Each structure stands twice: as structure tokens, then as C-alpha cells.
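Annual report, structural modelling task.

Input specification for the iron/sulfur cluster complex:
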Amino acid sequence: MRPPFVTFSRNVFIPLTNVCRNKCAYCGFRRDIGHPEAKLLSLAEVEDILSRGARAGCSEALFTFGERPEEVEGFKEWLLELGHETIVDYLAELCRLSLGIGLLPHSNPGILGKYELEKLKPYNASMGLMLETVGIIEAHEGCAGKIPEARIKTIENAGELKIPFTTGILVGIGETWDDRVRSIQTIRDLHEKFGHIQEVIIQNFIPKTGTKMNSKPAPGINEMKETVSMARRILPDDVAIQVSPNLIHPKELVRCGASDLGGISPETIDYINPESPWPNITELQSMVDIPLRERLPIYPAYVKKKWYSSEIAPLIRTLSDAEGFRKTYK
Ligand code: SF4
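The model returned the following structure:
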């Protein structure tokens, strides 16, 4: 049954580093060390973004960045200069900073071991890792982090630790329809075992200038409608489907079963897709034919189940309403 509203969250996007051990053929975000745009944000830079987000009424700090950058030569020195041995330790410090400023962290650090998830869990309202695809595709050749089993293991570990989790698939990166169906079935199976998948992003590939896949066409609206409909048939009702309104018009996808429009930022761009600006909230409402409802990075069901730590609890109480959505923000 179609929900009476479609949800979104208000966030700031923090691209902690664009250094990454992988080299996905569609990625326009990654930079090699030595490139003038390669960076690791300092604590002061992150604090500035968080403070601007708090002033703009955001509830979420979205930390998205390259995977296991320490494996790239030269990165460790950058981290040591900031006083940290690992990116996970630095991230944990930044998540604590975020909580102090009043934003709930949602981190996407790539593949992590269970001990690393345990370090981050107390300071994250939710976490995420795109499964992307269970298919073996050319775009992921030579990427240690894109081995499907390794990604599934991270999602399993998050389930064992009861971390409210976001995952999803990328559509149009060279996977087959059968890969897509099996990816969604894999996510369903993980949720049936652990109950931790709060949302599944169905994200359409967008070709990026300067990448190997620059000339590959993006999937059209009909392909996205079929994919969202397939996912809605396979996934349990308590798992939301998210589409990205800066990458594709969401109206028809909501009619096919999408019920979330992801994070919308009044302060920061989508650093992974910088050519695709987010709509503001008024524009977002005009893109769908049912009301919007603001949520936190942790979904209401997990607020009610209290799947959060004592470190996060006070801020969740401050920001959530009686149903576990975002308290009305003027
Ligand atoms: S898409 Fe993500 S994992 Fe792949 S190279 Fe870019 S930053 Fe790294």
C-alpha cells in the first residue's frame, strides 16, 4: 500500500577525504595523492560545516568518503599530522564533535571489520554501505572493496551489532537484470536475518566527465520504474525505498513504491554528484504528489526500538517527535 507521505532528511554532506583504495570506472569523486584536489578535511573544516548545518536546521551529518584511504601511500602521514592512526579513529572523534554541535552522524566509511563498526556505533545514529551489485562487473575490476562478499559481510556485521543500516544498488553500472534482482534478494535475506535494513537506495548511474564510463548512457525513467517496482515486490514492507531527487525526477518512482527522497542539504552540495544540485524543500514538495515528512537519519521504527547508544540518546530525544520522525522544525 502506498504510504500517505514521502520522507526526507535535512543534512550536511561531509566528504572527509576523496582518497580511496578503489578505482571504480564510474567514479568522479576519487583523487590520487599528489592531485591538487586530493584532500583530508581538518577538524576545523568539519566543525565549520557542522556549525553551518546546525544553524540551517539540519539534523544529520552525513560522512561519506573514500574507502580505506590508509592503504594509499602517503595518506597515513596526513592522518598522523591530525593526530590519528586510522581514519576510523578520526571519524569517531568527528562524530563526537557532531553530537556536541547537535547533528546526528550517519557514516558511510566503506567496508569495515566488526571491531571498527563497534568503535563507531556509539556515535552514529545509523550507518550505510551501498551493496551496489552482487554481480561481477568490469567497472569494479581491481577494486578490493567491491568484492560482493566483503560488502555483504560488513552489512551482516552491522546487523549483528544492531546498527540501523542503509544500503542500496547502483543501476546501470554494467550489471544485468538478474544481478539486480539477486542484489535486492540478498538485501532482503540480510534484513530477514537481522532486522536492521531501514532503507534501500535505488540509485541511477550518472556518467561523469573524465571517467572511463563517461560515454555510457544513464538508465532512463522506465528502467528505473521497473527496478523500483521489482525492489518493492521483493523487499519487506518495513524497508523503505529511497530514490535521489537530484539524480532523477521522483514522482513516477514514488508511484512505483519509493517512499523516501534521502538527504537534502541546504548548506552543502552532493560531492559525489556535484553536477546535480539538490532541490530545496519547496521544490522537493512540488516534485511529488503526496506530502513530505521530515525524518532523522535513524528511521522511526528504530527510534521506537531504541536501537541507539546512551551517547546518542539525548540528541534523539531532542530532535524526534512522539512517532520517531523529526520534530517540526520552523
Ligand atoms: S565510487 Fe567510492 S569506492 Fe569507488 S573509487 Fe569512488 S570513492 Fe572509491
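Residues 12 and 268 are 6 Å apart (CA to CA).
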